Amino acid sequence: MEWIDTLRLEQLYIQSANQWVLKSQIIYPSIKLLGFDAYGSFANIYSSYNFDPVYSKGYFDKVVLRYDDSATKKTIDFWAATRPIVLQQDEIDDYRKKDSLEIVKKSPAYLDSINRIRNKTGILELITSGLTLTNAKHRSSLSFPSLMEMGSYNTVEGFVGHAYLSYHKRFDTLQENRKSITITPKFRYGLANQHFNAGLTTQYTFGKKYLNALSLAGGKDVYQFNNAGPVSIVGSTYSALVSGTNNMKIYEAWYGSLLYTKGFGSGVNMYLGANYQDRLPLENSSRFTLDKEDGTSFTLNRPYPLTDTNIRRHQAFALTLGVRWQPGTIYIKYPNRMVSLGSELPAFEWRYTQAFDQVLGSDVSYSKWLLRISDQLNLKLFGNLEYGIDLGGFINKKRVEVPDLIHFRGNTSSFLSGDYLTRFQLVPHYYFSNSETFYSTLFAEHHFNGFITNKIPGLKRWKWNLVAGVNALYLKSGRRYIEPLIGLENIFKLIRFDYIWGCEKEGIKREDFRIGIKTTLGNNR
User: Fold this and answer.
1) Which of 85, 438, 459, 461 has its CA 20 to 30 A from that of 223?
2) pLDDT mean over 318-322
3) With DSSP H G I counted as helix, E B as strand and the rest as coil, what are the percentages for the chain, rounded to 5?
4) Which of 120-124, 176-180, 270-274 has the lowest mean pLDDT?
5) Tens digit of each residue's pLDDT (9 = 90 or more) over 394-418
6) For 180-189, 248-257, 337-346, 476-485, which range has the lowest pLDDT when averaged over its residues?
């Protein structure tokens, strides 16, 4: 609501069956954001009141809004008899223009003109956001990365050239339909170690009612030992070139993967995946840095402090089955699909991974499980509470390699802190990596949204808001860790500042500040 300048509400009540009921409601909002003003009006008409309704069993389901596929095919006479408010002349003229435009927009000449406009790009876009060429007639697009994404640096590959393109084709004429295919080849070359890697990913999306997808990928690529990729390419490039530290630890692998996801409704989604990797160790091959020309501060390509030895070449094949359920999920029903609006209840995700030895030459053998509970609570005037709880561990661990361990995201930089709800802020990335039979984590933060700072004159004027949180870890072996934090967010609309304490059994072992940048209306990075 902080962007709302004024909000005017008009309501008209009439008497029906000796009761006063709402007949019409009009909302007039005006918004001021980044120097721009916007305003509008939203009218709602209420009629056909039933004061003694009788509902059949199952009348109230999970669908809160339905769109009839024949709504755009009704005659003028139908709408004239149904519409509660007579159209004004400017509204009639607007509808006629839109009807004419609807026909024009389907013509080849119009589609060609749209392609020419959309496919124009400038130097700034090429550098920062890349290029997307669209073909409206054939419902397809071809995307290229930005120049900033095509280069990076690490101590293993040296200066790295990245290139990929993504071809997307929608099969249905309606924008709302899901049936489409995306094909993405990618290429990578390291100047120092002279390794060339290439891969191809194809994803087919379908499902008339609920979203389904099938993805197939294969090739050769570079992976972080934590395959979730906790170290950003931009951050690792900066730290290696400017600070003389190499935080990204990587290996190379031939890979193949298959992933199938399916929606069932009622907040239930399932996924089944198969993954194969032929993993090869990598060593440092470049010591160049702008900070120290001899690169003496660089460490070996090892996932410190987990181990100081590199992996040996081995193969790994694993199957993963997962189910996500959010009870109370509600939907909007379109003629050709269902769209989830989420729920006020927590989301539960269960995942099981089984690795097989002697399958496709696989050397690893283990099984592990994960239960994740997450939620966002709107506490009205008291702000918002977000949390995520993980429970999991290894059931058996006959042979487990470093990439197969349970890893947690860490952070070694005071700036660009990353997502607060997915990582520990004061420990290195592999500090707590383990093969425990049971572990649990908690990531939680409360955004007070002015509940406290609005009572402090200076902070109220600046609209800075208080945020507090805690990150915690428990391992069955007895290892424990807690990170309480407190800070201010919405600083200049973009910046978040936190002070954090890292506590282990011995007490507070570390403390530091973190600065995050808001990249969306709800996330900090």
Assistant:
1) 438
2) 98
3) 15, 45, 40
4) 176-180
5) 999 999 999 999 999 999 887 767 7
6) 337-346
60: which residues sit within 8 A by CB, 6+ positions away? Answer: none
Return the closest-CA partner of residue 287 out of 413, 161, 157, 162: 157
> pLDDT of 456-489, one tens digit each?
988 888 989 999 999 999 999 999 999 999 999 9
Q: Give dist(CA 458, CA 296) in Å, integer.
A: 47
Q: Which two tokens stand for residue 43?
A: 């009218």
d(CA 75, CA 83): 12
Whether the per-residue pLDDT at 123 is higher than 50: the answer is yes
DSSP-derived secondary structure letter, 24: E
b/e map 119-140, b = 16+ CB within 10 Å: eeeeeeeeeeebeeebbbeebb
Instruction: Classify the C-alpha dihedral 45-41-521-229 as positive or negative.
Output: positive
Residues 157 and 288: their CA atoms lie apart, in Å, by 11
Q: Are 155 and 298 in contact (CB under 8 A)?
A: yes
Paired tokens of 114: 């749209």
Yes or no: say if 404 and 426 are a contact pair by the CB < 8 Å rule: no
Backbone phi, then psi, for 139, in 5-degree steps?
Answer: 55, 50
Q: Where are the domains of the chain?
A: 1-60, 354-524
pLDDT digits (tens, 9 = 90+) for 60-84: 888 888 877 666 667 777 767 766 6
Burial of 376 (0-12, 13-18, 19+ CB in 10 A): middle
3-state secondary structure 179-213: CEEEEEEEEEEECCCCCEEEEEEEEEEECCCCCEE
In contact, 453 and 465? CB cutoff 8 Å: yes
Inter-residue contact 239 to 413 (CB < 8 Å)? yes
pTM over 0.90? The answer is: no
When pLDDT is cut at 50, 70 and 90, the band that residue 525 belongs to is very low
List CB contacts of 490: < 8 A, sequence separation 6 or more: 463, 464, 465, 496, 518
Distance CA 421, CA 472 (A): 11
Tokens of 42: 């939203």
